[in-house]
Description:
Blueprint (H helix, E strand, L loop, with lengths): L1 H4 L1 E2 L3 H12 L14 H11 L3 E5 L6 H14 L4 E5 L1 H5 L1 H8 L5 E3 L3 H14 L10 E3 L2 E2 L26 E2 L5 E4 L2 E3 L9 H4 L4 E3 L2 H9 L5 E4 L8 H14 L4 E6 L1 H6 L1 H9 L2 E9 L3 H6 L6 H14 L2 E8 L5 H13 L3 E6 L7 H5 L25 H19 L2 H16 L4 H6 L2 H4 L2 H9 L36 H10 L7
Parallel strand pairs: 2-3, 3-4, 8-11, 11-12, 12-13, 13-14, 14-15
Antiparallel strand pairs: 1-7, 4-5, 5-6, 9-10
The structure holds cobalamin and iron/sulfur cluster.
Iron/sulfur cluster (SF4) binds next to α8.
Amino acid sequence: MYSKIYLRLEPLGLELVASAARGVGHDVRLIDLQAETHKDYFRWIRTWSPDAIVFSCNYLANVPEIIDLAKATRVLLPDALIMVGGHSASFTATEILRHGDGSIDAVLKGEGEPVIVAVLEAAGQDRANLHRVPGVQTAAGEGPRPTFVHSLDAILPARDLLRHRRKYFIGVLDPCASIEFSRGCPWDCVFCSAWTFYGRSYRTKSPECAVEELSRIKESGVFLLDDVAFIQAEHGMRIGEMIAKRGIKKKYYLETRGDVLLRNKEVFKFWRKIGLEYMFLGIEAIDEQGLKQFRKRVTLSQNYEALEFARSLGVTVAINLIADPSWDRDRFRVIREWCMEIPEIVNISINTPYPGTESWRTEARRINTRDYRLFDIQHAVLPTYLSLPEFYRELVETQRVLSIKHLGLAALREAAGLAVGRLLRGQTNFVRMLWKFNSVYNPKLQLADHQQPVQYEISPPPEWEERIARGALYVHAAGGRKGRDIDNATEAFVEATRMGAEQA
Ligand code: B12
Ligand code: SF4
């Protein structure tokens, strides 16, 4: 839903996988189903007849769509090698193979760059033994844990393979490309699977390579994909200085934590000077009780101080609040009132346990739907205190108030100016976004989504446990301290602020 209105971003992970495969001599094509249709996909499959088709499944909600596409592809190309990779696929490999019912040959877990090369090579020799390759799971078994790409500098994304680059945007950054300066996250928040995927590692791209890649990007806007931007101040500063020196002029969007922002103020100030426009801060809750629920080791006053500082930079700040299904009408009202008092853009998501997160195993409430499509943090998958229709009415009303707030009269006046500029350049994404809210956010539609027939059911979480062995959640093996490319002072800062610190 979110991506129908506010943004559509290039699939950088898939471009990297494509680049790795192309690098060893394969003829590779890429189709982004955010920007093209199933009809386009089938036209390609029929006319080109590839030997292998790989789907990227980062988002759990996309599992049914991918299974159906794989099944239809199998009918058209009975001998093709059909595989699925990506973030969510890595946590649900067994289920995906089961749902595929023979249509999916393998699930590729972990980082795609090494596994795609290895699995295509293995397929050329002995297709029955793919499951011996690290990171590969097939109906016949599962290989060793996936390996990491040896350096983030090694492979540049195949940006040239996407046919509709002008369709990527976020808000006024239209058009917008994506880039990563680092990969992984050293923190360990209970509701997040970014750290479990990468085994709590954190790797960085060299500033030289990062800036060279940036200089080749044609789009004026750039979305920085890092989970937490500029954890290590020197790394962020060095990249910033090199951008300034080379005279690269772009507008940037990034996401970071409030405590990182306060620790590395100078870096963010510098980035403001070289084009930082938007910042997304994960605030999650506005009271101590809420912060405790998400086990955020950050105090309310730190959150407010971070907001204050972000405002002082003059960037547009967006924050995220997590609505819990236990919320009553009063709680929604308080949130609406609070949000109207602050200048920031507020995004509300619903507390959703995902496979691969700690919450998936430790959340005492049981999920009340097994429909993958509802796991998009815009639907309630845990029991609600209010009746479901009422919960959605309150939620959508809150989102509507917030949307009108940041697209209110003053904002609309400003937006009108920006819109004309973009239309003159033929960029229409931003302008379309302005009018779409009511057709996408509608409590009746949300509710109707719960009534759809469910063909593929997600496996429920295993028996509830209060505490779990965190290592069991990892896709990539944990490298411990040496897997984190941060200095000792930053490691100590992370230790003091991470959620699981007391269990380490
Ligand atoms: C950037 C980002 C976004 C961007 C997406 C940009 C895009 N078009 O891809 C935006 C802002 C749109 C977004 C939205 C959402 N996101 Co998001 N997002 C991320 C984030 C921070 C980074 C992803 C990324 O691009 N990384 C960099 C690239 C290089 O890595 P990558 O895509 O993971 O690809 C690598 C591997 O996954 C793998 N791989 C990927 N595809 C394939 C395919 C094959 C064949 C193979 C072999 C390998 C492979 O190899 C790649 C290279 O190593 C991740 C957190 C994370 N670190 O993963 C969350 C994350 C993926 N998002 C998440 C969520 C919850 C959402 C939203 C639902 C939130 C919302 N507000 O509504 C929406 C859903 C959007 C949708 N389409 O349905 C969750 C996923 C939950 C889940 N299990 O489904 C994550 C894990 C964050 C979290 N805190 O838990 N997101
Ligand atoms: S800081 Fe927490 S929520 Fe953010 S990416 Fe890291 S583990 Fe996930």
